[in-house]
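Regression test attached.
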Amino acid sequence: MSSPGTGTAELVEFEQSRTPLQRVQGVLHKYPYLSPLIVLVVAVIIFYLLNDRFLLPQNISFITQQTVVVGTLAIAQTLVILTAGIDLSIGAATTLAQMTMANLAVFVTASNVLPIAGQNPYLAILLGIGVGVLTGVLNGFLIVRLNLPPFIVTLGTLSVFTALTLILFKARTIQAPEMPEVMKWLGNTFEIGEFKLMYGVVLMLLMYVIFGYILKNTAWGLHVYAVGDDPNAAQLSGISTKRVIFSVYVVSGLIIGIAGWLTIGRVGSASPNPDPLLNLDTITAVVIGGTSLFGGRGTLLGTLIGAFIITVVQNGLSLAGLDQAYRVLAIGVLVIVAVAVDQWIRKVKA
Amino acid sequence: MTTTTGTTTPVLQGRNLVKTFGRVVGLDGANLELYPGEVLAVVGDNGAGKSTLIKCFSGAHTPDSGEMQLNGQRINFTSTHEAREHGVETVFQTLAVSPALDIASNLYLGREVRKAGFVGKVFRTLDKKGMRQDSAQHLRDLGISTLQNITQAVETLSGGQRQAVAVARAAAFGSQVIILDEPTAALGVNESARVLQMIQDLRDRGLSVILISHNMPQVFEVADRIHVARLGKRAAVVTPQTASMNDVVAIMTGAMTVPDHEQQLTPVN
């Protein structure tokens, strides 16, 4: 038996000598949003050099407006991916919520299944957000209760939500003049100096702050990380992993509902055909932002930066007069690099 | 060595526990008694039902039938959370730590402490500072004083360091019983010695410890009594003083049986 004095003192000791590369690895491990931040800064510098109109206040304002829908949905996608899940139905669910809202807010709807249509736009918005929550409840139920993989469940609900939208609302676009002002309110802008800021952008940033706080400072937030990191360990630590995962999809549904409202403001009309790139763009934003597709690590700040990288590349290329195919190319390369970097960072040792 | 009378209430007791997994029988009427302030080693061949037995007590499994008692009170844990609330802590073989979270978060995982007052109640803000300070204190209590950075992610620690975090978590919250499942299986000689030292420290603090191990020399070094499991049942309970390692191996494999009067079913000290 060793003497109590020496006890376990040497059980935890720290290696001092590390190579510069290992130090970089350690820093990136601790601050996962650093690599996307570097990418964003480099991209901004390059596009400014290609065309100095890139950094004009109007253009910066425009970039924030272009980012708002993907940026908001990327919050939901981050929560889901942190639990090692994925939501492929996110774009279709947003469209369903948005079309519900728009159809409830106007008198003349394509379908007559909505007797309360046109009564109260506020109620319409609330019900639309409620539909968003319901899409999350359905996804969460299928994943947690029936134990199905999130990829398969959301691939299925992607079709279900798309079809529901077309069946219920008959592929009719609701135009801007038809809708009450409050429906489009988030698309209004206010001016700070030469910058035109959209209310929707403020809402998006507010949501980043709120969910960033929740993930970092509440037990639920920690449990989201723990469940994605190692579900067995989380379960044995007394966390109800099923409850956490279900709640993540419900909360993500809430964000999706709000994003539906935001989309109406941003686009000005409500179209039943979702942007086909929306699903992948949210996943791309999350992955470029340094969140691991295998769950358990990542930050919302990284996701916000990732969402901006997507629009900055898109906007910069068109200002530089280059083909959007380069955007697709650049994003593709970034995604692969981001996942490779994530794999490398995971091997960090103190 | 005097044997106390049978009046001492076991801190943890299991009677006729049965647990099956489909057609596989994990426990086939197993008994176990753990007395206050002792280290009870549970040994047995692979498939003897050691892990299943302790998983019933730690809440990870619910037995199909049989009775479990904690300090004479009937218990029926349906989750590890419930067992922990009763002061029964387990260090699982897999450690059950979350690699991406820091040391303090892991110590408090599943029982986080909120800030006092308004902020904690309304915004559910965690008292991170307090938890970090307390975590550091718990680690110091176990003699892990060189742990400088409590905010370090557990995945950046070595195997022995992770083991220390898992043991510290159990020691910090276990008010009754601490169960360790193969705590030294993945460790080197020096690290193992320190874990054994920790086990003795825990006993000296008045806790009751169940140690599952394959390592006979370690078992004979720290155990007060040795519970030998075989085929989902208890084959015998012996002490390091009354039986040799060869005897224990013989009981494990069924080559030897121990008559009831030679078994140590009551506390040793």
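Expected vs. actual: identical. The two ends of chain B are 7 Å apart (CA to CA).
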